[in-house]
């Protein structure tokens, strides 16, 4: 039976073990993640505490010792992934920084993943079923450069709900990347990542088969293998524009609640911006229940 193989199985279970990010067709982990490449566009905003806290489930709260909460918006373009036979996909994640999980045996402080939009169903299915990530689908085209601005967008069947526009990006030495320094707030790549796994019960609205906190360890003091870094001058970084647009239910019938929640965030000044390329990726196999 599939319960006794020690391998990953997903629906439909009758067809045997399923290949995915953490398991190849031979049942073993992939060993060529170092050949992958990740393009990141990251922007951190100050955020009004109550509007950010409102998006956290019960048992999670922004650290009370943090005077100014922050939120990270990050567009990611993953390329040459071994588990997709060299293909890739795009993501757009929103992270609440400095969140303390009180649902675990010991309090854990990290960045909390509010939502991760992805433009490919396979990482959504594997990430939700095997790791409990809060992933949903969206159209996420590769970024474009228009009138000197780098532009990322997110849409659902043609209805655009996120647009990040960044002007005047300049190449800088890799050593100047904020990823090389400790920030005044948690970052998912450094201190780790929190999210909450939730699986509703079949035929019983309001009940669940699974509901518990998840932690993804960060890299700690290890420096990321950055191969390219670009940013903006301090005098122009506030010219970044992040637009989160509400739409009638008919335009976003399945993710309207998510977009409305993000639109409720009361954002302040830009704390940090980075546009960089990183050599290698990973399978997030260290993810664990806490």
From TrEMBL:
Taxonomically, the superkingdom here is: Eukaryota
Do you know which SUPFAM superfamilies this protein is assigned to?
Answer: Acetoacetate decarboxylase-like
Database matches in InterPro entries: Acetoacetate_decarboxylase, ADC_dom_sf
What are the leading ranks of the lineage? Eukaryota, Fungi, Dikarya, Basidiomycota, Agaricomycotina
Record's protein name: Acetoacetate decarboxylase
Molecular function (GO) terms for this protein are: lyase activity
This chain's source organism reads Naganishia liquefaciens
Q: Where are the annotated segments for Disordered?
A: 1-30
